[in-house]
Amino acid sequence: MRNAALGLDTAIDRITAAIADQVVVPDGWQCCAFAGDRGLLHPELTASATREEAAAVRAEEFAAHASVNRTCELGLTRTTGKPYHHLLELLDQATF
């Protein structure tokens, strides 16, 4: 259940299908625990919450890394060392 509670899964799936041949949701995906300013003040929270996901991301090479939340982009970029971008930014890049 990624964003089912918000009703976003269908929209996210449609956008990713439009811009990627293959979409990978990393093993261990869950909330990044950035939580507003918590991730800025306590980066160890995000590092701990994303340990399994970050390892899965670092284990392979991907053309892009996406999120649908700005603070998650910051936290995931920090913990994986890979540049995360908002999904709509990637859609914009793919359509120009």
Low-confidence stretches: none
Strand order in the sheet with the most strands: 1-2
Mean pLDDT: 89
Helix content: 40-55%
Describe the structure.
With about 100 residues, the protein is mainly alpha-helical. It has one domain. Helices cover about 50% and strands about 5% of the residues. It has a two-stranded parallel ribbon with strand order 1-2. Helix 1 (about 10-20) runs parallel beside helix 6. The protein is globular, with a radius of gyration of 13 Å. The termini are far apart. The model has no long low-confidence stretch (mean pLDDT about 90).
List the helices and strands and how they pair.
Elements: H1 9-19, H2 38-41, H3 43-49, H4 51-58, E1 65-67, H5 70-80, E2 84-86, H6 87-94
Parallel strand pairs: 1-2
Structural features:
single chain, 96 residues, mainly alpha, 6 helices, 6% strand
Offer a concise description of the structure.
It contains six helices and two strands. It is mainly alpha-helical and about 100 residues long.
